[in-house]
Design brief:
There is one protein chain. By secondary structure, the chain is α/β, with parallel strands linked by helices. The protein folds into two domains: 14-66 and 147-421, L-arginine/glycine Amidinotransferase, Chain A (5-stranded Propeller); 71-142, no CATH class. It is built from 14 helices and 19 strands. The protein has helices spanning 22-27, 42-60, 67-75, 80-92, 107-110, 119-128, 176-186, 222-229, 276-281, 303-309, 319-323, 342-359, 361-381, 389-393; strands at 14-17, 63-66, 130-132, 140-142, 156-159, 162-165, 193-194, 205-208, 211-216, 237-242, 264-268, 271-274, 283-290, 293-302, 313-316, 330-333, 336-340, 397-401, 418-421. A five-stranded mixed β-sheet has the order 8-9-10-13-14. Strands 2-1-19 form a three-stranded mixed β-sheet. A three-stranded mixed β-sheet has the order 5-6-7, covered by helices on one side. The longest helix is centred in the C-terminal third of the chain and has 21 residues, at 361-381.
């Protein structure tokens, strides 16, 4: 495979995924503290994730690489990938004594060097970050699992140059890049660039042929964008999009539109899907290729104006549809996408938003009111995305998928897939 992606609508050939594992169970004990939108059924989320993978492979011929399986196969034999997995597990073992101490209670098991342990055991150490002992025999604590790992979009991005590794913005996700880097190494993929300054997350990157969009806000910051410019991307023009403040929220809730792909996506060349209220609030700064880097070319208006100038038509979605991950679809080829079913998500999204509005009406009251209005209109007209006249007018083939549980972690089909090659 030749890693990378020129445009979001190019034919998808390879993706890497991670099924929600045991780490998700622990996050569901306190969903909000682990960046989840709501509690969800873990067993059903795993089933939904498998359905996504089966659909991509069986219906669209996409090669699916499972992070854990790929890593287990390569780390089962001596070599650099196994050595790196052992080192990662050693760093993640929270008690600071990865080799154990045979003189303590239970020492016979802990004395087994990490280098002699099976790769699945090592992988689980990396994912769960356990602390053993801590003054009490038999006690194990988890110091920092990585329950958002199944959102495989964010740790890296596929650009026109190849795979660019990101740098996560939140401490809850900071260890994920090291794990996915190891998965890429198991596939023989060497990243073309690693962002080492600032923050950059893959959900903020959308390639669009002759240009690319990079979101800049709570998850990707200006320093991270500049680091990306230094070797992660080579397209002629880049539009840096300022994360919009949601006009219906008093104050700020970054999670509602934390990444660019939570309010904009491309299902086809020349077509965008987005919420106009957010797109108008999203200011654009244009950068153009110059030598080995980029120079600022000036403002590009708001995102609707910028895309209109590029000749893109816009399929508008409502506030409620945006909250139901309607832009978080995965384009598998020009005009064909896999998308969450907004009509099945709407009741639970409204329920959770209602809870937030009752707890903090000053912040979320207007948002809830608009979302409830949208629900009544969409239900009456049977126009929940993607079942909209504009979608059919553009000739789009949108395959809906039930993701009512898996989206509870705050993301849809786009977020759950690491594109390796288009």
């Amino acid at each position: 495979m030749e890693p990378g992606a020129r445009a979001e609508w190019d034919t998808l050939r390879h993706v890497m995924v991670h099924e929600p594992g045991i780490e998700v169970f622990f996050a569901l004990l306190d969903p909000g503290a682990h960046l989840y939108e709501r509690f969800f059924n873990h067993h059903e989320a795993r089933w939904e994730h498998r359905q996504l993978c089966d659909l991509l492979h069986n219906s669209f011929g996409v090669r699916i690489h499972h992070l854990k399986t790929t890593l287990m196969e390569e780390a089962g034999e001596p070599g650099p990938v196994r050595d790196r997995l052992v080192a990662l597990a050693g760093r993640r073992l929270g008690d600071g004594r990865p080799e154990g101490n045979a003189g303590e209670s239970g020492g016979a098991g802990r004395a087994v060097p990490l280098a002699d342990r099976d790769p699945e055991h090592l992988f689980r150490i990396a994912v769960l970050n356990p602390a053993v002992g801590d003054g009490k025999a038999g006690q194990v604590r988890l110091l920092g699992p990585v329950p958002n790992l199944y959102f495989m979009r964010d740790q890296q991005a596929a650009t026109d140059r190849g795979i660019c590794m990101g740098r996560m913005a939140t401490p809850e996700r900071s260890e994920e890049v090291g794990i996915t880097s190891l998965g890429l190494a198991a596939l023989g993929i060497e990243p073309v660039h690693r962002v080492s300054r600032g923050r950059f997350e893959g959900g903020d990157f959308l390639p669009a042929g002759d240009f690319a969009l990079v979101g800049c806000g709570s998850r990707t910051n200006p320093e991270g964008v500049q680091d990306l410019f230094r070797g992660g991307i080579g397209t002629g023009e880049v539009a840096v999009v300022r994360e919009p403040r949601h006009p219906l929220i008093t104050g700020r809730d970054h999670m509602v539109n934390m990444h660019l792909d939570t309010y904009l996506n491309f299902p086809k060349e020349g077509v965008a899907v987005g919420n106009p209220a957010l797109l108008r609030e999203a200011g654009v700064t244009v950068w153009r290729r110059s030598g080995d880097g980029y120079v600022r070319a000036g403002p590009g208006g708001n995102l609707i104006e910028y895309l209109g100038g590029k000749g893109f038509g816009l399929i508008e979605i409502t506030t409620l549809e945006q909250l139901c991950y309607s832009t978080n679809f995965l384009c598998v080829r020009d005009g064909a996408c896999v998308t969450p079913d907004a009509s099945s998500l709407a009741p639970m999204v409204l329920r959770r938003l209602g809870e937030k509005a009752r707890a903090d009406p000053g912040t979320y009251g207007r948002l809830l009111s608009q979302a409830e209005h949208d629900y009544e209109v969409l239900k009456a007209e049977s126009e929940f995305f993607p079942h909209k006249k504009e979608v059919y007018d553009h000739g789009l083939e949108m395959t809906t998928l039930l993701l009512t549980n898996a989206t509870g972690g705050y993301g849809g089909a786009h977020c759950m897939t690491c594109v390796l090659a288009r």
